[in-house]
Specification:
about 250 residues, 9 helices
Length: about 250
């Protein structure tokens, strides 16, 4: 990829994957956000929703991840990007070493490239317009899904301290609220937190999902939200103990 970037004739680089499906106005919409002051651009890359649990949980996880990206962008420090749909300045990319700073990780090079730009103080912008999204297919099996997610999660050990703390303060309250349902037989008042969380998740997803090119009914939102939190734990520990080979 670096060789292709090197011979590009223009400074603004947009990257995606060969198997991604773009929309007619994709580049036009990204161009609106790739302003003269923008050095790195993040955009949405939803997954194509089909039948099956692996597909559905992958789509739900993808949507929640982009909600996290947009939220942390609003805080001034986006924690993630998606290589299927992002852009950057060619001159700055090469000046900062290209992908060499990400060489220590077999996955998550998109997140680590974003980290490098943020660490150097460059301006990052975000496109949330539905027409700027590109679509791709999900994993076909649980084995493939867990391996892909664990490999990407393994890159989190290279995140900045600020990104790590943001993720801690984002995920821990959610995990606590969900696990509080286990205390229902002993401390009913504590388990109330679980129902508050579910209501909040419902409102959040129902209000944003169309903008992010998804549609889940209320039952699916509750169902997949519970598994989403469980899989966060599984993916974290799998990423710490599984050995990866890049294919």
């Amino acid at each position: 990829m670096e060789a292709g970037i090197r011979i590009a004739r223009h400074d603004r680089i947009i990257i995606t994957d060969a198997d991604c499906v773009t929309q007619p106005d994709w580049l036009d919409q990204l161009d609106k956000c790739f302003t003269v002051d923008t050095q790195f651009l993040i955009a949405n890359a939803p997954l194509i929703k089909k039948s099956g649990f692996v597909n559905s949980i992958s789509c739900f996880e993808n949507m929640r991840s982009f909600i996290l990206i947009t939220s942390t962008f609003g805080w001034g420090h986006p924690v993630s990007a998606t290589a299927r749909n992002m852009g950057f300045r060619k001159e700055i990319f090469h000046a900062e070493g290209g992908y060499r700073p990400t060489a220590g990780s077999l996955g998550g090079d998109d997140d680590l490239l974003l980290k490098n730009f943020l660490d150097k103080g460059y301006t990052v912008n975000l496109s949330t317009d539905p027409q700027s999204a590109v679509f791709s297919h999900t994993s076909s099996s649980f084995r493939e899904y867990f391996r892909q997610k664990a490999r990407h999660t393994a890159a989190s050990k290279f995140y900045s301290k600020q990104s790590k703390w943001i993720l801690v303060f984002w995920h821990l309250p959610n995990l606590y609220a969900q696990s509080s349902i286990l205390l229902l037989p002993f401390f009913p008042e504590v388990s109330f937190t679980f129902f508050v969380k579910i209501l909040f998740d419902l409102i959040l997803v129902l209000s944003l999902q169309n903008k992010y090119n998804y549609h889940f009914n209320p039952f699916q939102i509750v169902f997949y939200q519970i598994f989403y939190e469980i899989f966060l734990i599984i993916n974290y520990f799998t990423s710490r103990f599984m050995k990866f080979n890049w294919k």
